[in-house]
Amino acid sequence: MRKEILFAIFAGAVFGLIIAFGVWRANIALKPSTETTTTENTETPTAEFGITIAKPLDTQVLTEGTTLVSGITKPNIWVTISAEDEDYVFEADEEGSFEQEVDLVGGVNEIIIIAFDEEGTSVEEKITVVFSSEFAKQIEETEEDSNQEEATEEAETVRDKVAQKVAKAKNVAFAYIGTVTDISESTLQIKNEDEEIKQVSTDQETTFVKTIKTSKTVKFQDVAIGDFIIAMGFKNGNAVLEAKRVLISSPLEASNREAVFGQIVEIDKKTVTIKQTDDSQWTLEFGKSWKGPELDEIDEGNTIIAVGIASENTLETRTLFVIPEESPSPTPTPSPEPEE
Q: Fewest beta carbons less than 10 Å away: which of 96, 123, 151, 210?
């Protein structure tokens, strides 16, 4: 009898310890942690302004050797437009609007627009246009067709008005640029630099020109998968380009044009070192000629914008622009007190 009592007491004690241990573990699990985890913010500060390009349109085909680049950005800041052969530096107006006539080269033109605020923070936009004087004939023919349509009776239905707007929009020519990935009957499929697939339709009036080494007229059958082409024409309602002219050319080379903003810290015979607001430095190299002042006309401490071909933190400079220093406001001269 005594043994049974002792066993019951021992078993009860063990069971109690198990319950107590379980309660302790539950309290530990439910207790909120007092440790705090800190994360380092590694985000790079971004500009609080941007650039909106009004014209020309990206991938637009132009038939004249100059075009007006216009847009809007932050008011009263410096804008740089870098074209294939020429750079332009100027100031946006009080409303942030800007416009500049830009010279084009024949073929594909990459236009880089960079804006710098007073702290040297920059934003950038790029557009690509194609200058083709040979394409002017196709555009003139399209405009003549459109004028004939506008000379008809005024549209009274919504469908007719929409059709007129579509006909007018078709007067804007565009280019699809990329590598041929598929060919079927009279259609070419290409992949552009953004990895987008584009469709190009052709017909008997489409002109094909091969511009590698020499320029010669070819046929649709001469186009092969893997060829790099510049197709010019008008988009239809399904975003298919109805090509009037197709150039088979060498692939485009990547542009390393860059614009930098900073303060001059050292001037050497053919190099200038500038420091940016983040303390990073650029070395500007100068060849036989460039656009802007001579090196003996600039001073350490000048704030400049330079445009050229970049390689790491070295710039082969082709344009140098010194930002004018603000003239101090004149101190008003007090009026003499009248004699008593």
A: 151
7-32 burial code (b ≥16 CB/10 A, e <16): eeeeeeeeeeeeeeeeeeeeeeeeee
pLDDT digits (tens, 9 = 90+) for 252-300: 998 899 999 999 999 999 999 999 999 999 999 999 999 999 999 999 9
Give the three-class secondary structure for 186: coil
- Residue 278's closest CA among 299, 291, 266, 261? 261
Give me the residue label for tokens 């511009």: 211
Q: Which residues in the chain are classed under CATH 2.60.40.10?
A: 52-131
Q: What is the pLDDT of residue 37?
A: 40
- Alpha-carbon span 63 to 40, nearest angstrom: 53
Q: Are strands 187-191 and 197-201 parallel, antiparallel or unpaired?
A: antiparallel
Q: Regarding the domain with residue range 52-131, which homologous superfamily does it belong to in the CATH classification?
A: Immunoglobulins (2.60.40.10)
Separation CA 156–CA 162 (nearest Å): 11
Using one digit for the tens of pLDDT, what is the confidence trace for 38-67? 344 444 456 789 999 999 999 999 999 999
* The two structure tokens encoding residue 310: 């970049």
Classify domain 173-249 at the CATH class level: mainly beta
On whether the CB atoms of residues 300 and 265 are closer than 8 A, the answer is yes
Q: Residue 195's pLDDT is what?
A: 95
**Cα dist from 232 to 63, 142, 210, 263, whole Å:** 11, 13, 14, 44
Cβ pair 251, 211 in contact under 8 A: no
Query: Rounded to two decimals, what is the model's pTM?
Result: 0.76
Mean pLDDT of 327-339: 56
Residues 141-160 pLDDT 10s:
655 555 555 544 454 566 66
As a whole number of angstroms, the distance between CA 129 and CA 174 comes to 8
Q: Are 179 and 191 contacting, i.e. CB atoms less than 8 angstroms apart?
A: yes
